[in-house]
Design the sequence.
């Protein structure tokens, strides 16, 4: 007989989560509780090799967790001879992240001089004339004027280009005053939505309508796995799709690319265009930022859309 | 043409690591640098769908990173029209953990009364008589005497059982004074090895010899992916094996199970026994803590051992 001694056994509880959100709520996808402690693990392996009845576990176990530990060991076909004590045995909590977001470090960017900004806006006016669709994306580097995006939206409209704005915070709010054709905030970028609690469809709709009231022609709020909500002059659409495994970084940009392609081809922002754009976002997740157009078309077929209200 | 504007583009650098070690050194397995920023991402996807030459990227880019960003965009078949500025464009660093260790929360365990400890040691003496091998594993719960393991080692030897001790810190050091047959520290548990820097084979050997000098019959120092170093009366053996993907939690316990099975069958702690024990540890990694004995035998054939010195 092999006797293993575990003086401080544990009920080992494992939680599988998608990603551990620090200082926020995390949904647990799967739970496992099993008897643990090094000697218990040794016994489990020795019994797997040597067969049941050849290994005995002893040590100190107490309370309801001690009870659970002893039952779990007996169920392994391992003899259990714990000394029962008054104290409650410990548990360990292991949190396994199945789909961890990368840890990112972001610099603010270079400081732009007024002269450089002027040079850029001149260049922009020339380029926008050639463009059917202009996409303004991302944060403003230090030194650019706070109304940078509103200026560019107006300049693009003057030369009859459509404009999509994908930014956040004051830059998004300011851009709306120049009436861009589409803005695409994500959940965290919507004004007034508290992302610590799960935001309801109602609060997303309310925030999207707020951006339209402020001047945006259409608002496509991307909600990650939950799809998106689109509010246009024609009404509000809920866009949902099956779960795709992969890396979600860049999926929002792929969605914007799909919206730009729809505007470039004169397609209205209805169910078909939104499904196609969502297919690109899903393909970006599946390809970790690299989009396979054929895969995107296949995925677009799995997107579901339904009208959930009007545009106001 | 679709024109995307990225005022604050970035050189997106991604590091793939096994696991990010906070306040310690981490080895980077793979590096990728590519042009980033939301508008650049939009252009990449739009160009993948629409074809080269249909998408143009503008914005502000400067310095050597700006240069790298512009070159990378041109290489995508996307027209690049950045306004060059004096400041240095930013980079983002994304750290992707390929094999994240679970986040664990461990309780200290229940407090044990002297009476409970006496009850246990009586039970232990009875059980040890039946055992050919006793394995003492893990931490001591609060309330147990500091020489708990030394006491149990002596009690087991009195009834002619072999003893393996797998613990750390003062409990390991104290257990050695009672001359256990085997101790199995891991790298972090070896006395005097600084784990912030990669410990050399020499420092592992020196620490293992220190534990033998202190009374341990044999020392098997497990080094995770790097295999193990065994120091016995017959000499010092380096045990190495190919990389196995999976969950390393419990692999050390599987190694101990293999050592116990070797002692139980009277096998000497030479290359064959160590290869078999390592095969169990590798199978535990592959099975995320569950060992398939047939798989363990297959993996044991891939273990290499070589003598690297004597036992002193």
Sequence:
């Amino acid at each position: 007989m092999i006797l293993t001694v575990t003086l401080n056994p544990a009920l080992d509880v494992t939680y599988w989560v998608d990603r551990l959100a620090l200082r926020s709520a995390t949904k647990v996808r799967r739970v496992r509780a099993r008897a643990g402690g090094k000697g218990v693990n040794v016994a489990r392996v020795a019994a797997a090799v040597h067969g049941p009845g050849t290994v005995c576990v002893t040590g100190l176990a107490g309370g309801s967790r001690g009870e659970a530990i002893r039952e779990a060991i007996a169920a392994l076909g391992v003899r259990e001879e714990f000394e029962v004590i008054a104290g409650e045995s410990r548990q360990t909590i292991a949190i396994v992240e199945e789909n961890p977001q990368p840890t990112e470090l972001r610099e603010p960017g270079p400081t732009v001089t007024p002269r450089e900004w002027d040079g850029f806006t001149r260049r922009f006016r020339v380029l926008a004339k050639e463009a059917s669709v202009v996409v303004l994306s991302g944060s403003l580097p230090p030194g650019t004027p706070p109304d940078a995006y509103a200026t560019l939206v107006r300049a693009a409209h003057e030369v009859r280009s459509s404009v999509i704005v994908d930014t956040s915070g004051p830059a998004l709010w300011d851009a709306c005053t120049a009436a861009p054709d589409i803005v695409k905030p994500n959940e965290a970028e919507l004004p007034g939505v508290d992302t610590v609690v799960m935001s309801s469809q109602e609060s997303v709709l309310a925030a999207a309508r707020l951006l339209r009231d402020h001047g945006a022609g259409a608002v496509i709020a991307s909600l990650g796995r939950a799809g998106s909500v689109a509010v246009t002059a024609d009404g509000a659409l809920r866009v949902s799709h099956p779960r795709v495994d992969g890396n979600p970084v860049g999926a929002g940009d792929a969605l914007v690319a799909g919206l730009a392609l729809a505007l470039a081809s004169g397609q209205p922002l209805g169910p078909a265009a939104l499904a196609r754009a969502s297919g690109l976002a899903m393909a970006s997740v599946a390809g970790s930022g690299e989009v396979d157009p054929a895969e995107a078309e296949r995925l677009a077929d799995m997107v579901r859309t339904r009208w959930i209200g009007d545009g106001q």
